[in-house]
Predict the 3D structure of the following.
Amino acid sequence: MNFPVSLSVVLTRHELCKDFDTSNTMGILTCSEGWNLHGSKCYKLDTEMRNFTNSKKFCKNLNAEMIMPKTAEENSVLPKIGEWFWIGLIDHNKTITLNWTWNDGAKLESSDRWANGEPNDDDSPEECIISGPTGWADVPCTGNKTTVCQKKPDIIADEDESVTLTCDVKYKEDITKLFWTRSIDDTSVIVSEYAKGGNVTLPSLVFEHVKWTDEGLYKCHVTTISGLTLTDETSLFINATNMCPCTCEYRRKLEYWGSKIIPNRTKEELLKELESELQKIKKELAVNKTQLSSSIRRRTSAPDKRKSSETMGLAGAAFICIVVGVVVLVDLLSLVKFVKSTITSWNFKKIGEKAKDKKRKIIDINKRKTQTSESSA
């Protein structure tokens, strides 16, 4: 059985960042996909035919409850949803004297919503109720009708608004224990220190100035004098886009470990309990000294994406290119000059050798002529 919890948003807005727009913005109620918002609740019509008991189970599996139009406003919504569907109202006593009771245990207080001639108990026993085009009608619970489920919408509020989560408790004298919890990513954490109430004396959970860190899934837990435990839940989302929120996760970690610590523990007991986590953190923070120099080099050579740095880098690269180009050009000219001088020297040497060979040949010819003349004489 779900416990009835209603939520209201008190719309007040206070200045947080003077550089941003602080005009009044209304909180938003929103429904999940497949659900329709009417008034202050989300409704879902399922056209599959079920008896009263199975319809009740169907809604419970959706973390919701069968529709219970207790107010005139909620009853006016019924024609917008459909016709001939179950209402979460039943005569639990099963006697001739009608004792209509809502599924959450509250008694029916108004009798002006019945269709003409209803309830009539024609097909006795007619202990369940359906919604028709002209009003309510009593019918046997074993019949098959369509199902309408209801649940509270999620709340989207701007940071620094005043938000009140109200536990709409019936028969408050039967409540022995009441408290709220908040969950983030399936992890239960402590309720915000900025919230007031949330107990048997003051069931409502009040945020005078809601913060982005108050976002989460809230549950109101109630224990009755008979030992029955009842819960209901809703999600609170905080729109902090224009309110300069902190983006770090430090607060989340504090909340997580705060929810894990058992009160009245000594420092030694806490250290022992957190030993495994402390060792894990120590290991993550440890520095490998053998790779320290390479780590420093990597940090030193890390890219700088600032625009001024990119401009300076391009200018430096252009200067280096010019210098290198001049050096290469000078070297090239020197190389050409060296090659030309080498070729010239080689040509002179070759001409000298030819002159010597020619002179040597002339001498040899003259010598042979002289020898020939002497021989003839």
User: Anything to note?
Assistant: Residues 86 and 130 are 4 Å apart (CA to CA). Confidence is low (pLDDT under 50) at residues 1-26, 243-248.
